[in-house]
Design goal:
Elements: E1 2-6, H1 12-22, E2 26-30, H2 35-44, E3 52-54, E4 60-62, H3 64-74, H4 85-110, H5 121-146, H6 159-167, H7 173-180, H8 182-192, H9 198-204
Parallel strand pairs: 1-2
Antiparallel strand pairs: 1-3, 3-4
Pfam family, one: GST_N
Organism: Pseudomonas fluorescens
GO molecular function: transferase activity
């Protein structure tokens, strides 16, 4: 059985949603629920980051894009990754784009002190503001480049749809997109209500 380490309002929501689409058994371990759960995460992932996925064979995967690609390849019927190689390459392109440009900026916004040799409040606020500005611009570029590759209501959603729906929930991104890219914002709002995924999103963002 898969064991997914995460907590509410985290990137683990994307992996939980993907596991639901794969229709496989899994256990969600909330690392904020107890010291023991957090210690178990630390043993699997020295960075102590979520999501971390313990595979049925005892292997460990970290990093959202890597986990989504693994699940898509392991469960091709899930539609997480397209069967067509050209379309699949574009989905992987989009996943890596989100991780490199959007997830990375959120890490700076959430933990600016990690990126400053000398921490003072002025530098901290300036770094956070710059990262947020870059994050929102990166999502504008994503909307322009990838909107045509997202779920249109037929068949099952895919990995790129799920990751976009989760990562846009942080750092004021959706509020920004409501004005800057209203079409993409409307798509996100519709996607949140997808019957297979809405229960997962509701658990993470009640």
């Amino acid at each position: 059985m898969y064991q997914l380490y995460g907590h509410q309002n985290s990137g683990a929501a994307a992996i939980e949603a993907a596991l639901e689409l794969c229709e496989v058994a899994y256990r969600f371990i909330d690392v904020s629920a107890s010291p023991e759960a957090f210690q178990a995460l630390e043993k699997l992932n020295p960075l102590k980051q979520v999501p971390t996925l313990l595979l049925p064979d005892g292997g460990v995967l970290t990093e959202s894009a890597a986990i989504l690609i693994h699940l898509g390849l392991t469960f091709p019927e899930s539609n997480l990754l397209p069967e067509n190689p050209i379309k699949r390459d574009q989905v992987i392109h989009g996943l890596v784009y989100i991780v490199n440009n959007c997830y990375a900026a959120i890490g700076i916004i959430d933990y600016p002190e990690r990126w400053l040799a000398k921490v003072d409040e002025s530098a901290r606020q300036n770094l956070m503001a710059g990262a947020r500005q870059r994050l929102h611009w990166s999502w504008e570029v994503f909307a322009d480049q990838f909107a045509g590759k997202l779920y249109l209501g037929d068949g099952k959603p895919g990995a790129l749809d799920i990751l976009a729906a989760v990562v846009t929930r942080w750092a004021g991104t959706r509020e920004h997109l409501r004005v800057a890219r209203p079409g993409f914002f409307a798509w996100l709002e519709r996607f949140d209500r997808h019957p297979a995924l809405a229960p997962v999103f509701t658990r993470h963002w009640p």
